[in-house]
Structure prediction request, 187 residues.
Amino acid sequence: MKRSDSRIGIGALPGRPCSAAATLQVVGEKWALLAVREIFFGNHRFEAIARNTGAPRDRLAARLRSLEQAGVVERRPYNERPPRYEYHLTEAGRDLAPVIRALLDWGDRWVHEEPPVVMVHEPVATTDAEVPGEGDGGAGDGAHGHDLDAAWICRTCGEEVAMSTLTVDVRSPGWDRAGPTPAPARP
Prediction:
């Protein structure tokens, strides 16, 4: 999905032209992603973000400023005297939710024996009768959601994606999968 009107400007970076490298330039520092995680979890005030990330206050303030300048978070006033602000994710920040989810999944599989945080999917229903598990006497009776078991689904074909089905199509001029291509010989 192209959104040229809301792009975060990143200058030329060394190495392979790549959206992953550009993304890491914006949110690749530990405290930046942990701040995004906390705001995603619903903690909007500096004190809560600092407490829950364990970040040094000066570093956290710098990361929040850079995230704001990049358009990932926005400050909203909640107190006039003294002036105090909350941090909220912008559309660009909310689009980092799958990144946070992927990091949680990886950590649950490779770092922690038991997940310290579980994401719960709350299905959207227009009436109480349409909420799965509610009032039907079955498992989950009275529950409003379930642990998220997310999958990577191709929007074009609708199939679940497996790593074995992926290939790389390098579209940057002067580059292929192995790296930079030799410049054409001059006549």
Helices lie at 19-27, 30-40, 46-53, 57-69, 91-94, 97-110. The chain is about 30% helix and 10% strand. Strands lie at 73-79, 84-89, 120-121, 146-147, 175-176, 179-180.
